[in-house]
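Our preliminary data section would be incomplete without showing what the modeling component actually yields. Below, a chain of 536 amino acids is followed by its predicted structure, encoded as tokens that our downstream tools consume directly.
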Amino acid sequence: MMKVLTGRILPVMLVLFAFRPLSAAVYHIPKDSLLSSTADHSKFRQLQREFKSGPEVTKACLECHTEAARQIHRTKHWTWEVPMKDGKLLGKKNVVNNFCISVEGNEARCTSCHIGYGWKDRHFDFKSEENVDCLVCHDGTGTYRKLPAGAGHPAYRPTVQEKKSYKKVDLSYVARHVQNPDRHNCGVCHFEGGGADAVKHGDLDGSLIEPSHSLDVHMASGKDELNMTCVDCHEGQGHQIPGSRYTPLARDEHGCDHPLPDDFPTSCASCHSNAPHKHNKKLNDHIDKVACQTCHIPRIAKERPTKMWWDWSKAGKFDEQGRMIVRKDSMGMPTYITKKGEFRWARDTEPEYRWFNGEMNYVTFLTTIADTGVVRVNHPDGHAGDGKSRIWPFKVHRGKQPFDPVLKHFVKPKLYGPKGSGAYWSDFDWDRSIRTGMQNAGLRYSGRYDFVETEMYWPISHMVAPKEDALGCVECHARKGRLEQLGGFYLPGRDVNPLIEIIGLLVSVGSIVGVLIHSVVRYYTTKKHKEREGEA
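Predicted structure:
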């Protein structure tokens, strides 16, 4: 009996206890440093010295964390490549984007967001363990920052880059004060993708470091708030962080099962189930066709403007004195920069909506494009009747970028580099920039270039509003509502179907006539009844 209890029942009881709601906890656990780690790195002998470079710090880390670098080497954060089932190779290294267009040829600038040191060209050693940057994800001081054009290195001495000053990073201090990644660690790259804060995603920016309740109910950091971090949902093992935009999850059939047992991040249903509206069955009926994000993230870029348009074809203009031009709008955001062209921004704006089944299609530099209209460098698959799709919110970034009108391929211009290198930001010669970039990539270039309008889709999953700010019925079920442009289905309140309208009219008229007839009959019946009572 005791053997059965300890071998079967007791483990089950322990599991049930472990997964009780936190509000039911019996003991108060203080929030202090002892909860964050079983080791105090400030006491480690290996870290009690001055470090001259990032790789030196990594070498010291690997004395204890022996497998960490090899784990990192297998991640998309390291390779910037994502192999797909159809054999296509995606990832930052391979796909087209309509921001800075291509990583290849511009590595020294782009890899300021890479989790490594020294990726400045195609000769980077991806097998080197010491090239792994441990500190960018584990800095607990908030003082560690890579240089914008340092190929992944921080400032080892006071440095000026791109007209900004950067203090020397105290590597020893940072190494002795590491932690599990928080919003700041992830945000250093993911909030500032595209070159600056809030540029790229629309639902990820620096306002999420210390967000208010109205900005994001999960990450809100005030008193009695959830104060969740990125890794609470993007919880992985062996440094494999789930949640790639190349393998998104459009609908979760698992329901409550945090964390998910596969390569996806926690979904809304993982914690809230697929029937989250306990007192409103009609809202639960929507979940089969409408993503939670659609109603619960009614606006994006709530506090900081996000870039909505980037026109490279306008780049290269100078003022009368031959100086580069910078123009800004009323929000202080650049609307024109000589190096980059023309921009448009939006703040506290509505997302756009598309049917999405979880399959995102990407254009690579080997894809033949149709240049007669707008080219989608990526786009969500799905339609109303496929049984897999739901209505999802997206930020859609639009612009114009260079392509080869003869070969019908996108091109890889070299943008960053010193004067005379062919880099556009130094020499301002599109033909030379494209020729240099394509030669570097080993790709064909016809010798002709033009510009084509493009659009790029970014699924929205952050900046979740409080329930009282979620969309109401009339936001969608109305003419000229949010779903005005979304086709493929009949939406009550928005669409006019003659047959349904006639049936509805007949039902309404029939109901009114029925009520009138019933009233008349009741009136005469009651009147006759009273007359009989009077005669009696």
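DSSP finds 15 helices and 15 strands in the chain. The first strand starts at residue 82 and ends at 83. Preliminary results of this kind motivate Aim 1 of the renewal.
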